[in-house]
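Quick one: C-alpha coordinates for this chain, please?
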Amino acid sequence: MDSLKRAAAESACSLVKDGYVLGLGTGSTVYFLIDELARRIKEEGLDVVCVPTSRGTAITAREKGITIASLEEYDALDLAIDGADQVSDKLDLIKGGGAAHTREKIVASLSKRFVVIVDEGKLSEKLSLPVPVEVLPFSWKVVARKLEDMDATTVVRQGSGKSGPVITDNGNYVLDADFGIIEDPESLEAEINLIKGVVENGIFPGMAHEVRVGTDNGVKILRKPG
Protein backbone atom coordinates (compact mmCIF):
# COMPACT_ATOMS: atom_id res chain seq x y z
CA MET A 1 0.00 0.00 0.00
CA ASP A 2 3.02 2.32 0.20
CA SER A 3 2.52 3.64 -3.32
CA LEU A 4 -1.11 4.51 -2.53
CA LYS A 5 -0.14 6.21 0.72
CA ARG A 6 2.53 8.21 -1.08
CA ALA A 7 0.08 9.31 -3.78
CA ALA A 8 -2.43 10.54 -1.18
CA ALA A 9 0.31 12.33 0.77
CA GLU A 10 1.76 14.07 -2.28
CA SER A 11 -1.72 15.15 -3.37
CA ALA A 12 -2.41 16.73 0.02
CA CYS A 13 1.01 18.37 0.13
CA SER A 14 0.04 20.37 -2.97
CA LEU A 15 -2.40 22.25 -0.70
CA VAL A 16 0.44 23.70 1.39
CA LYS A 17 1.17 27.32 0.47
CA ASP A 18 4.05 29.64 1.21
CA GLY A 19 3.80 31.10 4.71
CA TYR A 20 1.50 28.39 6.07
CA VAL A 21 1.51 27.14 9.63
CA LEU A 22 0.87 23.43 9.10
CA GLY A 23 -0.27 20.77 11.54
CA LEU A 24 1.67 17.57 10.91
CA GLY A 25 -0.01 14.32 11.93
CA THR A 26 1.52 11.01 12.92
CA GLY A 27 1.90 7.67 11.19
CA SER A 28 3.26 5.91 8.13
CA THR A 29 1.29 7.93 5.58
CA VAL A 30 2.42 11.21 7.15
CA TYR A 31 6.05 10.21 6.65
CA PHE A 32 5.46 10.31 2.90
CA LEU A 33 3.98 13.79 3.40
CA ILE A 34 7.12 14.85 5.27
CA ASP A 35 9.28 13.60 2.39
CA GLU A 36 7.29 15.59 -0.17
CA LEU A 37 7.19 18.68 2.04
CA ALA A 38 10.96 18.54 2.52
CA ARG A 39 11.40 18.26 -1.26
CA ARG A 40 9.25 21.34 -1.87
CA ILE A 41 11.13 23.33 0.77
CA LYS A 42 14.45 22.45 -0.84
CA GLU A 43 13.48 22.77 -4.49
CA GLU A 44 10.83 25.51 -4.38
CA GLY A 45 12.01 27.52 -1.37
CA LEU A 46 8.66 26.94 0.33
CA ASP A 47 8.46 28.81 3.64
CA VAL A 48 6.38 26.79 6.10
CA VAL A 49 6.31 26.20 9.85
CA CYS A 50 5.00 22.86 11.13
CA VAL A 51 3.38 21.92 14.45
CA PRO A 52 3.93 18.16 14.95
CA THR A 53 1.50 15.91 16.81
CA SER A 54 4.12 13.54 18.21
CA ARG A 55 7.77 13.34 19.12
CA GLY A 56 8.31 10.86 16.32
CA THR A 57 6.93 13.26 13.74
CA ALA A 58 8.98 16.12 15.18
CA ILE A 59 12.20 14.13 15.01
CA THR A 60 11.60 12.97 11.44
CA ALA A 61 10.61 16.45 10.25
CA ARG A 62 13.67 18.09 11.81
CA GLU A 63 15.94 15.50 10.22
CA LYS A 64 14.44 16.50 6.85
CA GLY A 65 15.15 20.18 7.44
CA ILE A 66 11.55 21.23 8.23
CA THR A 67 11.02 24.07 10.71
CA ILE A 68 9.18 22.86 13.81
CA ALA A 69 7.12 24.93 16.26
CA SER A 70 4.64 24.32 19.07
CA LEU A 71 1.14 25.41 20.01
CA GLU A 72 2.72 27.79 22.50
CA GLU A 73 4.00 29.73 19.49
CA TYR A 74 1.10 29.16 17.06
CA ASP A 75 -2.42 28.40 18.26
CA ALA A 76 -4.13 28.94 14.89
CA LEU A 77 -3.13 26.73 11.97
CA ASP A 78 -3.82 27.23 8.27
CA LEU A 79 -4.01 23.51 7.53
CA ALA A 80 -3.56 20.15 9.26
CA ILE A 81 -2.80 16.94 7.37
CA ASP A 82 -2.98 13.56 9.05
CA GLY A 83 -3.69 9.90 8.42
CA ALA A 84 -6.46 7.73 9.85
CA ASP A 85 -7.02 4.10 10.76
CA GLN A 86 -10.57 4.04 9.40
CA VAL A 87 -12.81 6.46 7.46
CA SER A 88 -16.57 6.04 7.25
CA ASP A 89 -18.87 7.02 4.39
CA LYS A 90 -19.72 10.17 6.40
CA LEU A 91 -15.99 10.99 6.80
CA ASP A 92 -16.00 10.19 10.51
CA LEU A 93 -12.65 8.79 11.60
CA ILE A 94 -11.00 6.40 14.00
CA LYS A 95 -7.46 7.47 14.81
CA GLY A 96 -4.90 6.56 17.43
CA GLY A 97 -3.05 3.57 16.02
CA GLY A 98 0.10 5.51 16.80
CA ALA A 99 -1.17 6.55 20.25
CA ALA A 100 -1.07 10.24 19.28
CA HIS A 101 -4.79 10.90 18.91
CA THR A 102 -5.06 13.42 21.75
CA ARG A 103 -2.53 15.78 20.22
CA GLU A 104 -3.86 15.01 16.74
CA LYS A 105 -7.38 16.00 17.76
CA ILE A 106 -6.19 19.24 19.35
CA VAL A 107 -4.19 20.21 16.26
CA ALA A 108 -7.06 19.30 13.92
CA SER A 109 -9.50 21.39 15.98
CA LEU A 110 -7.25 24.46 15.74
CA SER A 111 -6.84 24.23 11.97
CA LYS A 112 -8.84 26.16 9.41
CA ARG A 113 -8.83 23.04 7.25
CA PHE A 114 -8.25 19.40 8.25
CA VAL A 115 -7.28 17.04 5.44
CA VAL A 116 -6.93 13.28 5.93
CA ILE A 117 -4.69 11.07 3.79
CA VAL A 118 -5.28 7.31 3.52
CA ASP A 119 -5.03 4.36 1.18
CA GLU A 120 -8.30 2.86 -0.04
CA GLY A 121 -8.06 -0.02 2.43
CA LYS A 122 -8.97 2.39 5.24
CA LEU A 123 -12.44 3.12 3.85
CA SER A 124 -15.49 1.54 5.48
CA GLU A 125 -19.23 2.14 5.35
CA LYS A 126 -19.30 2.57 9.15
CA LEU A 127 -16.67 2.80 11.85
CA SER A 128 -15.96 -0.57 13.44
CA LEU A 129 -12.35 -0.66 14.64
CA PRO A 130 -11.52 -0.65 18.37
CA VAL A 131 -11.46 2.91 19.70
CA PRO A 132 -8.15 4.04 21.23
CA VAL A 133 -8.82 5.70 24.58
CA GLU A 134 -5.99 7.58 26.28
CA VAL A 135 -6.30 7.26 30.06
CA LEU A 136 -4.42 8.36 33.14
CA PRO A 137 -2.42 5.36 34.41
CA PHE A 138 -3.87 5.91 37.89
CA SER A 139 -7.40 5.26 36.63
CA TRP A 140 -7.00 2.75 33.78
CA LYS A 141 -8.79 -0.09 35.58
CA VAL A 142 -11.75 2.09 36.53
CA VAL A 143 -12.03 3.44 32.99
CA ALA A 144 -11.84 -0.08 31.55
CA ARG A 145 -14.71 -1.16 33.79
CA LYS A 146 -16.81 1.83 32.70
CA LEU A 147 -16.15 1.08 29.03
CA GLU A 148 -17.12 -2.56 29.56
CA ASP A 149 -20.37 -1.33 31.16
CA MET A 150 -20.94 0.35 27.77
CA ASP A 151 -20.63 -3.11 26.12
CA ALA A 152 -17.05 -2.66 24.93
CA THR A 153 -14.30 -5.23 25.13
CA THR A 154 -11.14 -3.50 26.36
CA VAL A 155 -7.42 -4.26 26.43
CA VAL A 156 -4.47 -2.20 27.60
CA ARG A 157 -2.26 -1.62 24.56
CA GLN A 158 1.12 -3.27 25.05
CA GLY A 159 4.50 -2.25 23.71
CA SER A 160 6.78 -4.55 21.76
CA GLY A 161 8.37 -7.50 23.54
CA LYS A 162 7.99 -7.32 27.31
CA SER A 163 8.21 -3.55 27.61
CA GLY A 164 4.80 -3.24 29.28
CA PRO A 165 1.99 -0.85 28.35
CA VAL A 166 2.42 1.67 25.56
CA ILE A 167 3.11 5.11 27.05
CA THR A 168 1.87 8.10 25.07
CA ASP A 169 3.86 11.31 24.61
CA ASN A 170 1.62 12.67 27.38
CA GLY A 171 2.71 9.93 29.80
CA ASN A 172 -0.54 7.97 29.72
CA TYR A 173 -1.85 4.49 28.82
CA VAL A 174 -4.05 3.56 25.86
CA LEU A 175 -7.07 1.29 26.18
CA ASP A 176 -8.36 -0.17 22.92
CA ALA A 177 -12.13 -0.43 23.33
CA ASP A 178 -14.01 -2.60 20.83
CA PHE A 179 -17.66 -1.53 20.47
CA GLY A 180 -18.23 -3.40 17.21
CA ILE A 181 -20.04 -1.34 14.59
CA ILE A 182 -20.44 2.25 15.79
CA GLU A 183 -23.83 3.60 14.74
CA ASP A 184 -23.50 7.07 16.31
CA PRO A 185 -19.83 8.14 16.45
CA GLU A 186 -20.55 11.65 17.74
CA SER A 187 -22.57 10.42 20.73
CA LEU A 188 -20.08 7.67 21.56
CA GLU A 189 -17.16 10.10 21.44
CA ALA A 190 -18.90 12.40 23.89
CA GLU A 191 -19.97 9.56 26.20
CA ILE A 192 -16.45 8.13 26.44
CA ASN A 193 -14.96 11.52 27.23
CA LEU A 194 -17.37 11.95 30.17
CA ILE A 195 -15.65 9.09 32.01
CA LYS A 196 -13.37 10.43 34.73
CA GLY A 197 -9.79 9.46 33.96
CA VAL A 198 -10.21 9.59 30.19
CA VAL A 199 -7.93 12.11 28.50
CA GLU A 200 -9.27 11.73 24.93
CA ASN A 201 -10.51 9.07 22.54
CA GLY A 202 -9.82 8.29 18.89
CA ILE A 203 -13.24 8.97 17.37
CA PHE A 204 -13.08 12.08 15.17
CA PRO A 205 -16.70 12.78 14.19
CA GLY A 206 -17.28 15.31 11.43
CA MET A 207 -13.84 16.91 11.80
CA ALA A 208 -12.33 16.12 8.40
CA HIS A 209 -13.03 18.70 5.71
CA GLU A 210 -11.81 16.30 3.06
CA VAL A 211 -10.15 12.91 2.68
CA ARG A 212 -7.60 12.18 -0.03
CA VAL A 213 -7.62 8.47 -0.85
CA GLY A 214 -4.83 6.71 -2.71
CA THR A 215 -6.34 4.13 -5.08
CA ASP A 216 -5.10 1.99 -7.94
CA ASN A 217 -6.82 4.48 -10.26
CA GLY A 218 -5.30 7.61 -8.75
CA VAL A 219 -6.20 9.85 -5.82
CA LYS A 220 -9.88 10.19 -4.99
CA ILE A 221 -11.02 13.24 -3.04
CA LEU A 222 -13.93 12.87 -0.62
CA ARG A 223 -15.35 16.09 0.76
CA LYS A 224 -17.42 16.86 3.82
CA PRO A 225 -21.07 17.44 2.84
CA GLY A 226 -22.02 21.11 2.85
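DSSP finds six helices and 14 strands in the chain.
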